């Protein structure tokens, strides 16, 4: 049987991994810039964690999770998003007790959702996310948004819009919940079965229903912003004022509710009309989640964060091939004695920190030169029978095309001297 990767997954081949590393490096640099530290949590967690954190009326939990029983019959789930695991680890490891009250954490890695694979949607995809836990302040909301904007700007994405909204605190959400129920009550039997369940359990989720999205009552639904309590309103006004001061463009989007249950107060999305992504693509989003730490058994602790889909960031990065550094040395042995010597030399060169490779296919010079070319080797080192006898190698600089005989004991010194005179090589 011919094996195929599971539907909705992709292989990142060696030719593409350089680009991924470039993206990861850029994200890590921005994190260092914002003093955000990495956390790595398990790829699978107890299913209950996601039911609790993400919410069992969300599509992600009710329809898209990869859930399985382990050998002891415990229900486990491949993580569909990053925040739940980070907050679980924050509580379990008591990071709230650290002297720095504001913990700024990032993660990147694969996430799993059983969705219909299509352009830009996979079943295994990658997210980069940031969580800022411990301080309830509009300044921290804005720091988070700034970071998200920095990422898309660093990637050179054009026509970006920051959409923001507020879901408010518990008091605002209770008032809004009631308003939504009153709004949809007269047409309840026209909504899909899922929405009828949502109506009781979590009416906010009706607003992101994919089945009923064109129902006329959707357009006229009450908006969160009109139900904010006084303090929630003040928080949101401060967020807007700070963005204004920093001259960050944004749009208040009253329809933005986000698809996960844990959000409260500020929510935001970064939408791009860059032709590379297609009009109106959401590159990432996030918001504040003040109840989540407590929900997962920790002390009342506010949090705010965002996540980007890394596949979308990769598209933004463009597909010009990544120019890697090129090898320092490609070793070209001719004959078995030369090959034995080549193994000695390559081991010694690698131990000295040079990047090198050698022919393992017993080819003639022509084929070996082609490899040296493909690997963009600075030097080709030719070792024939003659050289073995004389205890030398033939070093050809592929830039100047100069070729010199170098005694075995002088190889490292020769390469170093050569590089010193060559300002193109760092
Ligand atoms: P969410 O956790 O649903 O807020 O998603 C955050 C970001 O992750 C989205 O804006 C997308 O860029 C990305 N994303 C979510 N689901 C997928 C998927 N199935 N395939 C690829 N990217 C995804």
UniProtKB/TrEMBL annotation:
<dbReference type="GO" id="GO:0140096">
    <property type="term" value="F:catalytic activity, acting on a protein"/>
</dbReference>
<dbReference type="GO" id="GO:0005524">
    <property type="term" value="F:ATP binding"/>
</dbReference>
<dbReference type="InterPro" id="IPR033656">
    <property type="entry name" value="HisRS_anticodon"/>
</dbReference>
<keyword id="KW-0547">Nucleotide-binding</keyword>
<dbReference type="Pfam" id="PF13393">
    <property type="entry name" value="tRNA-synt_His"/>
</dbReference>
<dbReference type="GO" id="GO:0004821">
    <property type="term" value="F:histidine-tRNA ligase activity"/>
</dbReference>
<dbReference type="InterPro" id="IPR045864">
    <property type="entry name" value="aa-tRNA-synth_II/BPL/LPL"/>
</dbReference>
<dbReference type="InterPro" id="IPR041715">
    <property type="entry name" value="HisRS-like_core"/>
</dbReference>
<keyword id="KW-0648">Protein biosynthesis</keyword>
<feature type="binding site">
    <location>
        <position position="127"/>
    </location>
    <ligand>
        <name>L-histidine</name>
    </ligand>
</feature>
<keyword id="KW-0436">Ligase</keyword>
<feature type="binding site">
    <location>
        <position position="113"/>
    </location>
    <ligand>
        <name>L-histidine</name>
    </ligand>
</feature>
<feature type="domain" description="Aminoacyl-transfer RNA synthetases class-II family profile">
    <location>
        <begin position="1"/>
        <end position="333"/>
    </location>
</feature>
<dbReference type="InterPro" id="IPR015807">
    <property type="entry name" value="His-tRNA-ligase"/>
</dbReference>
<dbReference type="GO" id="GO:0005737">
    <property type="term" value="C:cytoplasm"/>
</dbReference>
<comment type="subunit">
    <text>Homodimer.</text>
</comment>
<keyword id="KW-0067">ATP-binding</keyword>
<dbReference type="InterPro" id="IPR004154">
    <property type="entry name" value="Anticodon-bd"/>
</dbReference>
<dbReference type="InterPro" id="IPR004516">
    <property type="entry name" value="HisRS/HisZ"/>
</dbReference>
<feature type="binding site">
    <location>
        <position position="131"/>
    </location>
    <ligand>
        <name>L-histidine</name>
    </ligand>
</feature>
<protein>
    <recommendedName>
        <fullName>Histidine--tRNA ligase</fullName>
        <ecNumber>6.1.1.21</ecNumber>
    </recommendedName>
</protein>
<feature type="binding site">
    <location>
        <position position="258"/>
    </location>
    <ligand>
        <name>L-histidine</name>
    </ligand>
</feature>
<keyword id="KW-0963">Cytoplasm</keyword>
<dbReference type="InterPro" id="IPR006195">
    <property type="entry name" value="aa-tRNA-synth_II"/>
</dbReference>
<dbReference type="GO" id="GO:0016740">
    <property type="term" value="F:transferase activity"/>
</dbReference>
<dbReference type="GO" id="GO:0006427">
    <property type="term" value="P:histidyl-tRNA aminoacylation"/>
</dbReference>
<feature type="binding site">
    <location>
        <begin position="81"/>
        <end position="83"/>
    </location>
    <ligand>
        <name>L-histidine</name>
    </ligand>
</feature>
<dbReference type="Pfam" id="PF03129">
    <property type="entry name" value="HGTP_anticodon"/>
</dbReference>
<comment type="similarity">
    <text>Belongs to the class-II aminoacyl-tRNA synthetase family.</text>
</comment>
<keyword id="KW-0030">Aminoacyl-tRNA synthetase</keyword>
<dbReference type="InterPro" id="IPR036621">
    <property type="entry name" value="Anticodon-bd_dom_sf"/>
</dbReference>
<feature type="binding site">
    <location>
        <begin position="262"/>
        <end position="263"/>
    </location>
    <ligand>
        <name>L-histidine</name>
    </ligand>
</feature>
């Amino acid at each position: 049987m011919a094996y195929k990767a599971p539907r909705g997954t992709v292989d990142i081949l060696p030719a593409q991994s350089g680009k991924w590393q470039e993206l990861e490096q850029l994200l890590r640099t921005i994190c260092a810039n914002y003093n955000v530290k990495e956390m790595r949590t398990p790829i699978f967690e107890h299913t209950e964690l996601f039911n609790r954190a993400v919410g069992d009326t969300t599509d992600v939990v009710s329809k898209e999770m990869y859930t399985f029983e382990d050998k002891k019959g415990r229900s486990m789930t491949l993580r569909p998003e990053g925040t739940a695991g980070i907050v679980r680890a924050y509580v379990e490891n008591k990071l709230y007790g650290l002297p720095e009250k504001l913990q700024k954490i990032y993660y990147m890695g694969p996430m799993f959702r059983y969705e219909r694979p299509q352009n830009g949607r996979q079943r295994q995809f990658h997210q980069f996310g940031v969580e800022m836990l411990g301080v309830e302040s509009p300044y921290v909301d804005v720091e988070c948004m700034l970071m998200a904007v920095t990422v898309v700007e660093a990637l050179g994405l054009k026509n970006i819009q920051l959409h923001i909204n507020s879901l408010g605190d518990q008091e605002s959400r209770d008032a809004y919940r009631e308003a939504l129920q009153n709004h949809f009550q007269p047409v309840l039997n026209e909504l899909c079965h899922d929405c009828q369940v949502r109506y009781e359990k979590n009416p906010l989720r009706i607003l992101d229903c994919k089945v009923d999205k064109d129902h006329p009552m959707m357009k006229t639904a009450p908006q969160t912003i009109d139900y904010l309590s006084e303090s929630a309103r003040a928080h949101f006004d401060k967020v807007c004022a700070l963005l204004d001061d920093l001259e960050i463009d944004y749009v208040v989007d009253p329809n933005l509710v986000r698809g996960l249950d844990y959000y409260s107060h500020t929510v935001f999305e970064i939408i791009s009309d860059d032709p590379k992504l297609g009009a109106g693509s959401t590159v990432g989003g996030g918001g504040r989640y003040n109840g989540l730490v407590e929900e997962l058994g920790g002390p009342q602790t506010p949090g705010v964060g965002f996540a980007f889909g890394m596949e979308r960031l990769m598209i933004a990065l463009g597909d010009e091939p990544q120019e890697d550094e090129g090898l320092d040395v490609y070793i070209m042995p001719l004959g078995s004695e030369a090959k034995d010597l080549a193994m000695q030399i390559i081991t010694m060169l690698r131990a000295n920190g040079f990047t090198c490779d050698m022919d393992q296919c017993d080819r003639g010079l022509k084929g070996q030169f082609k490899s040296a070319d493909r690997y963009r080797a600075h030097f080709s080192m030719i070792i024939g029978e003659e050289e073995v006898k004389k205890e030398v190698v033939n070093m050809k600089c592929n830039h100047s095309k100069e070729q010199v005989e170098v005694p075995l004991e002088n190889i490292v010194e020769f390469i170093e001297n050569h590089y010193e005179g060559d300002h193109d090589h760092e």
